Amino acid sequence: MFLLALIRQYFPFSPETILIKYIHKLTSFAYPYVHIKFPEYTGERMKRSEAYAAIEAYLSAACSQRAHKLKADLGNDSTKPILSMDGHEEVTDEFDGTTFWWSSNTSIRQTQALSLYPDQEEKRSYRLTFHKSNRQLVLDSYLSHVLKEGREVGIRNRRRKLYCNNPSSNWGGYKSKVWNHVVFEHPSCFDTLAMDPEKKREIMKDLDAFRKAKDYYDRIGKAWKRGYLLYGPPGTGKSSMIAAMANFLDYDVYDLELTTVKNNVELRKLFIETTSKSIIVIEDIDCSLDLTGKRKQKSKKEEDKSEEKKNLPPGPEEKEESKVTLSGLLNFIDGLWSACGGERLIVFTTNHKEKLDPALIRRGRMDKHIEMSYCCFDAFKVLAKNYLDIDSHPLFDAIRDLMEEVKITPADVAENLMLWSMDEDAGSCLENLIQAMNKAKEEEASKKAQASTEENVEGEEEEKSGAQEEGASKRAQASTDEAVEAEEKSGAKVDEASKQTVCNGG
Ligand SMILES: Nc1ncnc2c1ncn2[C@@H]1O[C@H](COP(=O)(O)OP(=O)(O)OP(=O)(O)O)[C@@H](O)[C@H]1O
């Protein structure tokens, strides 16, 4: 062991590697087979290889009959599991009367050999073995056949996913995944979305044009991505809109929690790890970080507090503050890295559009600004169809009139239209809604009255204080005049006295 350690110190390659190299050289004359390795990650773990994913899907169909060690997962049809090859397993495949051997390999590499708790990295790969006489067949047709079939199987078996980013502290270690996922099963779609029908049609048309526009984006030299800004008060359907978009386009959703991203470098890594055909969402962007570009001046109190904190050991629940900057986020949206992969929508949502930095939402970055507003009568009709399965009702007219006067969110309308018990019917739900709107109307009226009373009181006070000020200034003016008069009089007296003195003296 000591000698081995010494040798390793002075020779860059381990003796086993050198030995294997020479054995390979010697046997290659007699050994008539060729190997091709397909690692899971390419470019220093930057991005999962598409070839690896396609081969995995291709072999899932081939291996179920022959392999002994398999992995199972649910696919698109959730009743039938999809099998794939487990680590260190081999299967054969026939193509054009020729046999090919596939094996799956897993190795674990320690990434920080000197640390007390080294990180472990799992490296997976597939290996294709074939006779050297079939080299041309493999290069000309077999590999393209595997990749094409694999991609098709992948799309057939694909279950759409909802990803969320892992807090960066968990990235090291055995499972260095930056995104975690669950199956995306949100039922919202454009049919169930309550909004102005014209606006809805326009959005659907825009999305449809986007997904078919690969050639167009190539031609104009732009990355194949589009930004959407959804803004409006809470409960107007921004999240429902994102789900409807994902269902319409059949895309995955990446829900990016910006506050847990440590810095711009991590933000870039997260972006690279997203797949194409996906929507990357940052909800409530105005609350995520201080993205105004100018850091706020810390108050004296805050500074003292952070000084105190520095002297204390960090608590377990204390989170490191995110250092993602506005420029980092702008790069994320349309920097050089944003062109890795394609077919991505980037969606920001906010309740306060006016708080966002104009650079962040300018056209070209956020190509489409969609206002999600209060419920209009057309939107109400969609909700009535969804919740009560009715297209018309005698109470609709009253509701239409009220909606012109009262601001109510679709979420509030939906809440009133829910049939909670068996003895409720459409009529009672609509009455509930009318009651709620009447109440809202009264509240609004009383708020207005309150505001106007306050305004009047303020006006009166202003008037009073104005009058007082006027009186005070008049008084001040009068006293100044008096003083001037007195001064003038005393001046005259002095003149007279001096005249007399002069006369007397003369
Ligand atoms: N436009 C809408 N169409 C259909 N349902 C809606 C709509 N708006 C709201 N809802 C209903 O209200 C619920 C809340 O809506 P949603 O979460 O989409 O609103 P939001 O605008 O994203 O709110 P927040 O800003 O608070 O996140 C949804 O589950 C849905 O049932």
UniProtKB/TrEMBL annotation:
Sequence ranges of Basic and acidic residues compositional bias: 300-321, 464-473, 486-498
GO molecular function: ATP binding; ATP hydrolysis activity
InterPro entries, per the entry: AAA+_ATPase, AAA_N_dom, At3g28540-like_C, ATPase_AAA_core, ATPase_AAA_CS, Mitochondrial_chaperone_BCS1, P-loop_NTPase
Domain AAA+ ATPase: 224-376
Matching Pfam families: AAA, AAA_assoc, AAA_lid_At3g28540
PANTHER family: BCS1 AAA-TYPE ATPASE
Region (Disordered): 296-321, 444-506
Cofactor(s) the protein requires to work: Mg(2+)
Family: Belongs to the AAA ATPase family. BCS1 subfamily.
Keywords for the protein's UniProt record, in alphabetical order: ATP-binding, Magnesium, Nucleotide-binding
Record organism: Cocos nucifera
Highest taxon above the source species: Eukaryota
GO annotation terms (biological process): response to stress
Name the UniProt record assigns to this protein: AAA-ATPase ASD, mitochondrial
CDD domains assigned to the protein according to its UniProt record, in alphabetical order: RecA-like_BCS1
